[in-house]
Amino acid sequence: MEYRKINHQDKDEEPEVDLEISRGGTVNNVAALGEILGGKTQWKRKSLVTFALTVLTSSQAILIVWSKRAGKYEYSVTTANFLVETLKCALSLAALLRIWRKDGINEDNRLHTTVEEIIVYPIPALLYLVKNLLQYYIFAYVDAPGYQILKNLNIISTGVLYRIILKKRLSEVQWAAFILLCAGCTTAQLKSNSDRVLETSLQGWVMAIVMALLSGFAGVYTEAIIKKRPQRNINVQNFYLYVFGMIFNAAAIMIQDFDAVVNKGFFHGYTSVTVLMIVNHALSGIAVSMVMKYADNIVKVYSTSVAMILTAIVSVFLFQFHLSLAFFLGTTVVSVSVYLHSIGKLQR
Amino acid sequence: MEYRKINHQDKDEEPEVDLEISRGGTVNNVAALGEILGGKTQWKRKSLVTFALTVLTSSQAILIVWSKRAGKYEYSVTTANFLVETLKCALSLAALLRIWRKDGINEDNRLHTTVEEIIVYPIPALLYLVKNLLQYYIFAYVDAPGYQILKNLNIISTGVLYRIILKKRLSEVQWAAFILLCAGCTTAQLKSNSDRVLETSLQGWVMAIVMALLSGFAGVYTEAIIKKRPQRNINVQNFYLYVFGMIFNAAAIMIQDFDAVVNKGFFHGYTSVTVLMIVNHALSGIAVSMVMKYADNIVKVYSTSVAMILTAIVSVFLFQFHLSLAFFLGTTVVSVSVYLHSIGKLQR
């Protein structure tokens, strides 16, 4: 499989190349030097997109808390989601225009496509739509804090589907780290009423597991689509992902908020915070695609988990949040997990 | 150092020997076969004492809960501690008598000793005495559930002192596992009011850390004493440890419970549960010594942590305890820690 080969190159060979540089090995061949510099660039790009995703995800959660403090959501969430997809689409097109002006149009960066290439792009958008619709029903069985905890099942489902669908292997230490990531994130979110989660009915559990599988599958499937054509420009790939995102989110407006939009207008209840949130979600979305292209879903999961911790720490200063002992313990476990994941890779 | 050499043999070479057997390697030498069978026996003995310690520690905690349910402690704890030491002493002597009858008295199993050998034995008993006395004062700063949580600092202090004093190394994965063991045990013990621990005053923290260091040091020092003379019979070593335990616990009776013993009698308030607890503590104490001899402090810490989990699970059936989400998450982290510790060893 094409995407497997590329990813293998991306992930496994870089550290060795970096090691060679740091050891000051004798590089007496221009081709080898080029390869090393290429590896270094790839590593830098991977770190950059991961860092961007972490910062954007943290600020995203902080914006949500901020907007909640300012009052309830007065705007239709579906219209905001549609605008997020539209903005992502526009940004991808803008990036493409720049590239076309600089490098000219070629086979890798042209928008022209085949049915065979495009046929898979609606699938992730459709999966997310189903997941978001299910979200409205799960609250009949689980309360909001309980749902926050059950959402951590995402971590496990992503790991399992990553293994099954992308056929990429994690070492034993990395699997252990992944279980710890899930346990640590959940521990950090424990509140005095968290035990209620254990009383979730069978329907609630089934829905939570189905939603975790849908979201894990959408993530892993997106990675498969993007990595399948490694030469294809990421902005073209993003453009197609987001066009279908726009289409399915337009459908969601019709299903859920048609009356509100017709009666109160498309932009009813929008504030400057709403606009900031839309911009932030759009940039985070692009960062996620970049992480899929240059890293993988595992990096994405770690990045968003670390963002969750960062958000809580920043919230202490911004909103006088109280950090619990559970948060401290969860953070310790997540930190050890990140460490184990990184050393687990070298031992493969 | 003598004890290092022996321990190294104990820990690192056995798994390889075991591996050879399971792979069905060609063993064409009687000496090699003897060594392998010896390794197998050592491994069996190590597993047996670890298993015994785990079961005894779990049942110990269950007996404590049971005796508390039946009412408050009516007896003097110091007299019970003294009887525990006395019983351990008697059991060691009984074991020695059997050995003398069977093998005769030799250099390794005779009670006769030198000043140089015996001079170190009072130290662990003295350290435990200081720690137990401090325990009375720490409750001015921390409540009982808070103290249960702070006691997990023991795990970290044991690991650090094990590294510094016994100069034995843990792999990176094993260190990570050790931090996880501490975080997992604490998580499993979280209660709705556990956050109060974070408000512990500086004095409380200092005392908790000093107590953790005292108890860690006592454990590691005992291992050093026992391993320093690997040929010496463990029952002789135990006999000396417990004789000094008796002496220092007699001192504790004088300091703390002199009046109660004089006025109400030595055995006031004893019930059949008290007797069971004394027998259990004595057997656990002997199991700890055996683990120090045939395994090490790290195994001891894991064994008692796993016992904590087992106790809680058994308590669900015995006392209708409610298992919290925190307990489930803590148990997951402890289990992963045990797994990582075991695979961390092989990768050294």
Automatic annotation (TrEMBL), chains A, B:
Keyword Acyltransferase (UniProt): no
- Residue ranges spanning the membrane: these are 48-67, 79-97, 118-139, 145-166, 173-190, 202-226, 238-255, 267-289, 301-319, 325-343
Membrane topology is: Multi-pass membrane protein
Where in the cell is the protein located? Membrane
GO CC, one annotated term: Golgi membrane
Molecular functions per Gene Ontology: pyrimidine nucleotide-sugar transmembrane transporter activity
* Similarity remark: Belongs to the nucleotide-sugar transporter family. CMP-Sialate:CMP antiporter (TC 2.A.7.12) subfamily.
What is the protein's name according to its record? CMP-sialic acid transporter 4
What organism does the record attribute this protein to? Saponaria officinalis
